[in-house]
Write a structure and sequence with these properties.
The chain is about 30% helix and about 25% strand. The protein is built from ten helices and 15 strands. Helix 3 crosses helix 9. The longest helix has 15 residues.
Length: about 350
């Protein structure tokens, strides 16, 4: 049978490729994709060519093998239904809604070990938030918020909004978010932020100083803009923590690590979801973290932040929207014919 795959050919050039797909082998299943989510952070670096070519696409996910180099397939949030079984697969898999870390494609072959059953009651649109929710859960584990802390988040894209939603469940002294786009700031306040500000506003420093006289205790840099990291460090108080969740790719920015940073004992924490902090590994593993992420999806319902659905054959328009008009979008999905 035929399947259709998205291919990143060059900076700002994507195409749909048609190819044959084999029947599933022993221990494998064939999945027909319902929806796949575009990551407006990582994928836009791929789309724009803002990546360093010496890196593997992802060393922890078999379906994302190879190096970061054009042409390449990418994407890591596919949800669909099992439509065919290989030898040795339990018949109970047939027809089930599943999630998998797969590049954007109309169909894919996977082992059952590479699939996760979506909890019953969740829609495909909700299930596609699993990677970003797992990332947000990981950010909280690495930041370790405390009762009464002053927390700040730079960036209210979908990962930032999920992180805000989780932090809003804590009894913090305040939860301040910053984003350039009004649509995201509005969503942030609805997600539980006590205040959401434009980091480019003329009086933003005064507003932040009024709200954080002694600086933030816990700051997250999730905007994807390296320059925001410098602002995050400036905003963090003595012995505070800055969790850096952004992947900047090949983008660079100068940091002021002079007097105040040098004397303030600020901790910079690199946080990336492909692993767990070693100090947590005695009781936590990926399976337990995924289980928690599914629970948080059901409680928070991030599908409310889906702003656009694009049919798969119009994928190029979806990337153009995110590239040229990011202020209009939060989460963009690709949809596939049944």
């Amino acid at each position: 049978m035929k399947r259709f795959c998205l291919l990143f050919n060059a900076p700002k050039q994507v195409s749909i490729q048609e190819e044959e797909i084999n029947a599933p082998g022993t221990g494998q299943v064939l999945v027909q994709t319902d929806v796949s989510a575009i990551s407006p952070g990582t994928e836009m670096l791929i789309y724009r060519g803002d990546f360093t070519g010496e890196l593997a696409i992802d060393e922890t996910i078999d379906s994302l093998g190879g190096r970061l180099a054009y042409p390449m397939r990418y994407g890591y949030s596919a949800v669909g239904r099992v439509i065919a079984l290989g030898l040795g697969v339990d018949p109970a898999w047939e027809g089930r809604l599943v999630f998998s870390f797969q590049p954007h494609a109309s169909h894919f072959i996977a082992t059952t070990e590479a699939l996760m059953l979506a909890p019953r009651g969740l829609s495909p649109e909700q299930a596609c938030f699993l990677p970003n929710m797992e990332t947000a859960v990981n950010f909280l584990m690495d930041g370790a918020p405390l009762l009464g802390e002053r927390a700040v988040i730079f960036g209210q894209g979908i990962v930032g909004l999920l992180t805000t939603s989780l932090l809003a469940r804590f009894p913090l002294a305040c939860l301040i978010t910053l984003d350039h786009y009004a649509l995201r700031r509005q969503a942030s306040r609805l997600a539980g932020a006590s205040t959401s500000l434009d980091p480019a506003a003329q009086d933003v420093d005064r507003q932040l100083n009024d709200l954080l006289a002694d600086g933030a205790d816990l700051t997250y840099e999730l905007s994807g803009a390296p320059a925001a990291l410098d602002q995050a460090i400036r905003l963090t108080g003595f012995s505070g923590r800055v969790v850096i969740g952004s992947w900047y790719g090949s983008k660079r920015a100068e940091l002021d690590l002079g007097g105040r940073f040098h004397r303030s004992r600020i901790r910079l924490i690199s946080s990336q979801v492909s692993s767990l902090a070693p100090e947590l590994s005695g009781r936590w593993d990926k399976r337990r973290r995924f289980s928690l992420a599914w629970e948080m999806i059901a409680e928070i319902d991030p599908a409310r932040w889906i702003t656009h659905h694009f049919p798969f054959d119009r994928a190029a328009e979806a990337y153009q929207l995110l590239d040229h008009s990011p202020q209009e979008a939060i989460q963009v999905l690709l949809t596939y014919p049944s």
